Amino acid sequence: MTSIQKILHQELGVRKKVSRWIPHLLTEKQKTARVNWCQKRLTLAAWVFQGEEKPTKVIRSRSVPKKMVAIFVSKAGHIATIPLNEQRIVTADWYTTICLPKVITELRKINPERRIILHQDYASSHTAQKTRQYLTEENLELMDQLPYSPDLSCNDFFTFPKIKNRLRGQRFQSPEEAVDAFKNVVLDLPANEWNKCFENWFERWKCAKKI
């Protein structure tokens, strides 16, 4: 052992250590998630002695009933919420014979001569020939929606997050009860909130234009 090694190891007590490589430096939140993930999987199986009862695990049913609704809003607030009562998907027939007529009726109660501009995405029920024909017959103007742009849709960046925050953690006895709660949250939103929503929407147009 050389003098330098003797000084380092015996007198100073230092040791040469090679750093351990890790792929990422995890945050505390990520470390907690890893622990929870491992604990969850460890509960799937356990060692037991002969004669002992095996552990039980309660599994919630995946067949949770759901209810789809169509919601229409304006700068003045909520216009209509229409649930799909007898079907699971939105079709052009349902959209033009049940949904849109209710929306138009509600709008024309306020002002029969008002100009109606409909903002919708490119779902098949919205772009079907039957729907386009109906919009033309009812003299509705159509505002298109850019694909993959939820930040330019009022429902995506405002309405749905508001509803989710209010209803998070609640349980309902029936789909109808859930729809009623959905409506109540929307109706409880004050007029100034809707006004801010649309003002924000218009500002987002300017930001997108600058980009």
TrEMBL record:
Record-linked InterPro entries: RNaseH_sf, Transposase-MT_Hybrid
Single GO MF annotation: nucleic acid binding
Domain of life: Eukaryota
Protein name listed in UniProt: Transposase
